Structures are given as C-alpha cells and as structure tokens.
UniProtKB/TrEMBL annotation:
Keywords: Coiled coil. GO terms for biological process: intracellular signal transduction. PANTHER family: GDOWN1, TUFTELIN. Residues 120-147, 189-276 form a coiled coil. This is Myosin tail domain-containing protein. It comes from the Eukaryota.
Length: 283
C-alpha cells in the first residue's frame, strides 16, 4: 500500500484513538507520557513513510477549534439577548482556558503557560464585564416588566373603581325609589288603619244587633224543638194506631176468608141435598 493510504488509515484509526478527548486529558499528562505518545507517532511515521502531525500540534489545533466553536455558539431564541449570549460565550471560554491553565502548569514551555494565563485573565475580566452588563439589562427588563404589571394593575383598579362607582349610583337610585315606595306604603298603611278603625266601630254596632237577633233565634229554635218533639210524639202515636188497625184488619180479613170458605161449603152441601130431593121426587 502507498504512503497516502497508510496515512489515511493512521488518521482514521490510530490518530482518532490517540486524540480522543485530548483537550480534557493531554494538559495533565506528564512529560514522559507525552514522549511515549510522540514515540507512537514517530513509529507510525516511520512505517507509513509520510509526514504526520505531532501530538502537541494536534492538541493546540483542537484547543483552537474548540475555542472557535464556543465563540460561534448560536443564540437565536428570543428569550436570550446579546448580553446573555456574550455572558455564556465568555463563561465557556473562561472555563476552557482555566482548564488549559491548570494543565499548562506541567508544560515545559513556561512562555506558553504565561500566555495562557494572560488570555484567561483577559477573558475573565471580559466575563465579569459581560455579566455586569447582563445583570444591568436583566434588572432593566425586570423593572420594565414590573412597571408594565403595575400599569396594568392600575388600569384594572381604575376599571374596578368605575364599575363600583356605577354600582353605587345604581344603589343610590334604588334607595331613592325604595324611599318613595316606602312613603307611598306608609300612606296606604295609615288609610288602611283608619278604615280598620271605622270597620271595628261599625262592627261593634252590628255585633250587638246580631247578638240580639241570635238570642231571639235561639228562643225560636227552642220553641220549634219543643213543637217538633210533640209532633214526633203524635206521629209515633199515630203510627202505633195505624199498626194496631192493620193487625185488626188482617184478623178480620182472616175471619172473612174462613166464613167465605164455610159459606161455599154450605152452598155446595145445599146443592147436593137439592139434587137428592129432586131425584127422590122424580122417582
């Protein structure tokens, strides 16, 4: 296989394994570990016969790429402002640079570590400034939001006050109407009381007359009761007489029927004897 194919194979397999998450762990590696990793790269370079990038160069390139990605973070949501975007970017950059600073303590090149510290300090100052601006903007937005809420509440209170004023006016009108109705009702009550007194006075006279008539009627009723009782006694006596006469009539009818039977028997006997006499005379 040619050098280009071997180089591509190295980049796809070995280099991807060696540089996996290199920005997180390479800064804390010791110099012996870094030399060991570089020997692996040199061996691969000898085998492939092509020039391969060093581990240190890959580490620096990955760090730069990571920083550029952090700077280019998109904040398209409407709830984030420019201050929020800058604060997030500077915070991420500072965290990334602080990681580099902590890892650069073990670097052999002190100038690189000093540069990294300066960059981290500058970024930290920018972070503080952006956080301050973000805080001011947030306070201003909260104040404006609170002001809007208070204005809305004031409008609502004014509307409620207007409605309550209308209700008070309606209640006053109702009270005025009720007072007029009360005066009319009091007049009606006075006239009704006067009429009631008149009716009571008239009723007293009528009551006396009615009591007299009632006494007379009671006497008449008592007299009529006596007459009714006497008539009832007479009727009972007549009924008894009628029943007695009926029994007498029935007895007489029975006697008459007996006599009629005897008469019929005698007539029949007379006829028989007459026939016998006639027969004897003829003979």
């Amino acid at each position: 296989m040619g050098p280009q194919v071997l180089k591509r194979f190295y980049s796809c397999t070995i280099e991807s394994i060696l540089t996996g998450c290199i920005t997180a762990w390479y800064g804390n590696c010791s110099s012996s570990d870094r030399k060991t990793l570089q020997r692996v790269v040199c061996t691969a370079q000898y085998i492939t016969g092509a020039r391969l990038p060093a581990i240190q160069d890959l580490y620096i390139r990955r760090c730069q790429r990571k920083a550029l990605k952090i700077v280019k973070w998109p904040f398209t949501s409407s709830k984030y402002g420019n201050g929020m975007q800058m604060a997030c970017q500077h915070r991420a950059l500072c965290m990334f640079v602080f990681t580099l600073c902590s890892s650069s303590l073990s670097l052999e090149n002190s100038e690189d570590s000093a540069k990294v510290r300066e960059v981290s300090k500058r970024l930290y100052a920018q972070l503080k400034e952006s956080e301050k601006r973000h805080k001011e903007e947030r306070d201003r937005m909260q104040f404006s939001r609170r002001l809007d809420e208070q204005s809305k509440h004031l409008q609502w209170v004014e509307g409620e006050a207007g409605e309550r004023g209308q209700k008070v006016e309606e209640l006053q009108r109702l009270l005025g109407g009720m007072e007029l109705e009360g005066a009319v009702l009091r007049g009606k009550i006075a006239t009704s009381e006067a009429e009631l007194l008149q009716l009571r006075a008239a009723k007293e006279g009528v009551t006396e007359e009615l009591e007299k008539e009632l006494a007379v009627l009671k006497e008449k009723i008592h007299h009529l009761d006596d007459m009714l009782k006497s008539q009832q006694r007479k009727v009972r006596h007549m009924i008894e007489q009628l029943q007695n006469s009926r029994t007498v009539i029935q007895e007489r009818e029975r006697v008459i029927r007996d006599l009629e039977e005897k008469v019929a028997f005698l007539e029949a006997e007379v006829k028989m004897r007459a026939k016998e006499v006639v027969i004897e005379i003829k003979s």
